[in-house]
Every structure is written in structure tokens, then in C-alpha cells.
Amino acid sequence: MQVHTFRAESLQAALQKVRQSLGPDASVLHTREKRESTFGFFSKSFVEVEATLDVPVPSRLAALSTATSPSIPPTTRPLSRTSQPAATAGTKSTKTASSSSTAQGSRPVRASDSETIAAATRQPPPARAALSPAVMEVYSDLVAGGVDSKLAKELLVGEHQALHGPAAEDSWAVRAAATQQVIARLNVSGSIELQDGQQKVVAMVGPTGVGKTTTLAKIAAGIRFDLGCQLGLIALDTFRLGAVDQLLQYAELISAPLEVVSSPEQVTAALQRLRECDLVLIDTAGRSPRDTEQLAELRKFLEYAEPDSTQLVVSATSSAAHVEETLERFSVLQPSNLLITKLDEAVNFGNWLGVLQSSRLPISYLTTGQHVPQDIVVASARRLASLLLGNYHAQAHAS
After folding, report:
1. By three-state DSSP, how is residue 258 classified?
2. Whole-number Å distance between alpha carbons of 190 and 133
């Protein structure tokens, strides 16, 4: 049996290629969604379809319609190209849905049954009539990128969705409308602001391994070289091997004095020695969100420091559940901002959408690599929305 493979940005486009190349009697053997193996977080997803002309089969429209909506007899479903199958009550991942549709029978599917294939292999949309292929395509992309299925439905066909007419048939317009909704739900604060003659103290806190020290160095270097301000550094991270040495190297790079303190009582004296600095950045030891004793100890340091801003640093490589727990546990430190690191390493960042839109902490900065000071940007709602929704065509520094 000769098998042909077709790739396109959407399932509909891939099926169109099948029909153009093999004709309407071609049989679809497999459909799957893949992502290009490129670096960074703007890699594109595509749909791959395997088809053949060597397996003549009757249409499976009725069987697939039954799998999509068991409560509606397949004979009552319209067979026109513009009709859309009703959604199932639950949602599964794209891979699961594709596997389920294949497992319903041993015979392949006709390429001409494009709408039915789309319903069986994609995430099922909410039970709304006449959903356009563009809406279904964007819905599937969002869920594949990690966005919770309920949130994806709400963004695309919720009560506030205003797409009508031709706009609902354009996947770019659908995605843009969803992006605008996410922008309205996100809370960002912008960069650290300094005032002439007034010192500002900023502390960096967070779990272990999120990149607090490197992020502190990026902020310090940016402010030092761009604004020409005097900076001072305080290290509370005296438990991690090499942490003070790393911070000392950064301090020498920006010609900033460094104070190392090992007890809460020493913080006051350190701040007094740095009183001429415009900005004092405090580096702290990483703490496990579940280690209440260590968090209580860190809180004593911060009570002496009395920072104007406490930046809670979290890594984009963490799961949404871990971030939610971190926000809850670190609330004892009274953080004022959220800072997200390692976006260049993030996978399925869309699953953060629910956490970020419900968090009270405004987001200050985003980091995208290890280079100091280049790989850091000021957070903007538009940039975050593009990353959360997997708008891989967006530029990293879109404002």
C-alpha cells in the first residue's frame, strides 16, 4: 500500500491538499498535530495527514457522527459541507481525540469527510450551532498549547465574543479577538521606577532554581548602564554554594558595592552603608514553597529590610499547579510583583492563563535566556497574551 503524507497549518488545509493530489476518493489513515523542532518559544505547529488510494472504503460519516455526539442519531445530521457536528460533553487532548477516532474501526476515513474528521480529531468545541472551521481550528491550537479547554471555549464562543459574519471565518481574526480578551484580563506593572533623591529597595524572592540571581543581575546592569544610577547589592543567599561568588562577579561588572548578611539584624547596618545608592537590590536564597520554616526565616530578613518592592520570581518551566502553590505559600512574604523567567524553555505555557488572570500580583519582567543583561524585557499584556495563546508569529519584543 502506497501512503502519502501531507502537511499544512490546519487540518482543513491538509485535507484540501489530499483532495487536490489524490482526489475525493482518497482514504485518510492518520492525522496528527506536530510542532517544528526549532529553538525558542515561537516554534510553529502543523497538521500531518497520511492518506492512500489503495484502500477503497465506504464513508464513515455516520460512525464518526455517532462518536462525536452519541445522543443525536447520525441519520439526523446534515451532510452539507457547511454543517458542523455538535460537541461532546468532555474534552480530551488532540492526540487522544485522534486515537479515539481511529480506534472506532479498522478502516481508514475518506478524505472528503473533512468536517467529520475535524470533529473527531480536534478538541470538541462547545455545543453551539454553526461554529466556523476557523473557530474550531483556533480552539484546537489553544488547547494543544496548554490553554484549559473551558477557558478556550470562553475566549472563542463566550458571551463576550463579538465575532460575526466574515470575521468568524478568518482564523487570524478569531485569534486576534481571543488575544484582545486575554490582554484585558492580565495585570502588568512595568519596570522598576526610580525617583531623584529617593532610594528604592527591591527584594527578589522565589523557589530554588528559578534564576533569581541572574535576573537580579540583568535588572541591575540595565538600570546601571541605561540610567546611570548608583546601585548597591545585598546577598542573603549564604546557604547555596557559590551564590555569593556569582553575585560578586556581577557586582564588579556594574561597579556596585556588595553587602553579605547572615542574620536579620545585620540588614539594617548593610542598608545604612548603602544609603548613597539610588537602588538597592536584595538577593535571597531559594526556598521550597512547602518549607514554612525557611519562609518564616526569610520573612524576618525582609521585615528588617522593609523593601519598597518584593519581586516573586517564578519559572515558566513550572506547571500551573506549582505556580499556584508558590503564589499561595509565598504570600507570607507579601510580594508586590510577579516576575517570570525562562520563557525560552517553556513548554505549553498556555496552561498558565488561568493562574495569571486570577492572580492579584502585577507582572513586572519576563526573561528569555541566560545572557546578562540582554535577555530580559518589561512585561506587557500584549506580549504575554501572545505567548499564552501560542501566537508563534508574534515578535518576542512586541509591545
Report:
1. strand
2. 38
User: How many other C-beta atoms are found inside a 10 Å radius of the C-beta of residue 294?
Assistant: 15
In the block, which residue shows the cell 450551532?
129
Q: What is the DSSP string of 214-241?
A: HHHHHHHHHHHHHH---EEEEE---SST
Task: Judge if pTM exceeds 0.70.
Answer: no
- Residue 188: DSSP 8-state: B
Q: Annotate 105-132 with DSSP letters as a single string.
A: -SS-EETT-HHHHHHHHSPPPPS-TT--
Write out pLDDT tens, residues 187-244: 999 888 888 888 999 999 999 888 888 899 999 988 888 888 889 999 886 555 566 7
Length of the chain (residues)? 399
Q: Quick one: which H or E segment has residue 88?
A: none
Question: What single-letter amino acid sits at 236?
Answer: L
Q: Where are the alpha helices (DSSP H) in the chain?
A: 11-22, 61-68, 94-103, 114-121, 133-144, 149-157, 171-185, 212-227, 243-253, 265-273, 292-305, 320-329, 353-358, 381-388
Q: What is the pLDDT of residues 25-44, one digit of tens each?
A: 777 776 777 766 443 334 46
Separation in Å, CA 120 to CA 13, 34, 82, 124: 16, 17, 16, 8
